Amino acid sequence: WSLPNAEHYALQYADGRQTYITESVSGRPPGPQPRWLRTPPHRFPFSSQNRGEIKNGSILRLTTSPDQEAERLYSGIQSNNVDVKTDSLKKLASLSQDVTFAQEFINRNGLKQIFYIVEEGNNTGEILAHTLRAFTELMEHDFVSWETLSAAFIKKIVSYVNMNTVDASVQQLSLSILENMVPSSRLLFELVKKEVTVDRLLTHLQVTNAQLQLKAMALLIALLLAATDAERRDMMQYLREKNIRQFIHKNIIHSSEPLGDEMAHYLYVLQSVSLNLHERRMRTSMDPYSQEQRELLQSLRQTAFESESETPASNFSTERRRSLCAKEFRKLGFMNNSNPAEDLRRAPPGLLALDNMVYFSRHTPNAYSRFVLENSSREDKHECPFARSSIQLTLILCEILHVGEPCSETAQAFYPMFFGQDHFFEELFCICIQLVNKTWKEMRATQEDFDKVLQVVREQITRTLSLKPTSLELFKTRVNALNYSEILKLRQTERLHQEETLAVPVLELRERLKPELLELIRQQRLLRLCEGTLFRKISSRRRQDKLWYCRLSPNHKVLHYGDVEEGVHSPPIESLPEKIPVADMKALLVGKECPHMKEKSSGKQNKDVLELAFSIVYDVEEYCLNFIAPTRYEFCLWTDGLNVLLGKEMTSERTQTDLDVLLSMELKLRLLDLENISIPDTPPPVPKPPSNLNFCYDFSHAEQ
């Protein structure tokens, strides 16, 4: 448009976030560029060009350039006129979301002025809120490290969190700033942890302002995640003492307001951090020489048996006492009854299983004694082994609850009942170990059925947890109602649902689709051969470091192969000197049939290598080209592809898997319109032809 001083103008989106339009240097016509379009690497390392992202229909407006706007606002926030200063800070908070403007403003040392307003000013209202919002937006672009913040600035932000008379929006922004500071460095974490007490955060959690509550929870979670294991353990212990769990259960989970995604994520993290406190015990094997651990183990036996024994074990000889203890440990269900500590050497679940058993015996002694004595009086083959079941159940619960796994950055799946119960993990174990005994009896299980019973119990627990019960009592009621016969019914229903696709017409459709999908798999296999694979050479003595590459020509007529150097991933066909015409290939050999496997038959054969070996027999002299596939997946692709070239059926397990997946997808797409419609086994009868075929509709007479 030939505007004078063109560099003072820019285009900006009129809607949405109203970001500036920027472009790369190569995308501009020759001639001088406006300074806001130049992106010297030493100044703007994060510069982005978005001109190519403009969509048809986007409304743009001509406005002052980012550098002019940054200059104007930089002056405006220093104005002595309160209205000008407020408006400038408000506009700054809005424009700072744009990376181009943020670069220009930071280059003018704008952050220093913001620090001055916060550190020196006594504002606590609108001006301060706009200043903190602008600061937050500018820091979002990562141009400036959080570690560069001055101690005076941080103390001022902390003071806004700790004051009672500050505007709620200022407190929210201050909490958000501290949350961003905590993970950036250990020094900042320690400073924030020292200045903002957990008690103060709990005070903010108890307000009715949902946003302030959310920001307080965010800072608490940030502190927990940045803490060391010992600090995290101390913090969680303090939170337990302050009954944060009951507060969250009552005032956040069961509040009248619906729970937002962000708060749901923080509750998931809090749950995960709390459960992960069990990780240390879970990964620690039992030490048979530890007096404390041996006493815990003996307490299980004493609680179950010594109360019923008329003669104390101490009156017996050492040999008799040892024999009696071994017998009682066997009744408790330990596999190694002479040295039960061996059963707890496996980690996970390690000492966590022992902790759970001791907790069960001490907090529900009647249920514990009933479990042990009931099973010790059954026939040997029908008794449910308490200790073995407890060890396996602890492992199952750790897997279901993801104990020891790092927190997901996006997950929101927390269990409401977790916040409704102290010692959640142990109490859940107490319910589930009794469920094991109940299910064992329902299944009339023997020792051989142990894994099957625990598999059913896992299913009972996961199905009940998926219903998100709000309390452990409700969980107990539902999981006990979901007995073995109910599990069988559910399995049968799901199987029938899957087998809806096994109606006769659907089976016929499957058969019709198979040839087309098998052809698709063949094409995929040949394409994979055309891409080629890197193989390692195997000698009769040892594995060599030499590499060779093999690939099929695009016309599927020739196999090219040859040695390559380490680091070469996809060499061109021209660089592979050796060739085998596909027409000369006679047969494909796999496993023990391969010549390079027969040579090694005198020694101990490596089973893994045997499963990856295949050879091509070619030429009239019946030469062999021998392969060792890098993975089983590559083995399947290559053997399938070579069988296709030889005109034979694809026989690998991968073919069947791929075919099942493709058939399932295709059938689901074809049967979408038949949802909830039962498909008859036989086609409906064709109606009889009409007695008179001389009929037609006369359209000349309009209906009255």
Automatic annotation (TrEMBL):
It holds the Pfam family ELMO_ARM. One of its GO terms (biological process) is apoptotic process. GO terms for molecular function: SH3 domain binding. Residues 292-465 form the ELMO domain. Residues 26-50 are annotated as: Disordered. The keyword Repeat does not apply. The keyword Transport does not apply. Keywords: Apoptosis, Phagocytosis, SH3-binding. Involved in cytoskeletal rearrangements required for phagocytosis of apoptotic cells and cell motility. Acts in association with DOCK1 and CRK. Was initially proposed to be required in complex with DOCK1 to activate Rac Rho small GTPases. May enhance the guanine nucleotide exchange factor (GEF) activity of DOCK1. PANTHER family: ENGULFMENT AND CELL MOTILITY, ENGULFMENT AND CELL MOTILITY PROTEIN 3. This is ELMO3 protein. The gene is Elmo3.
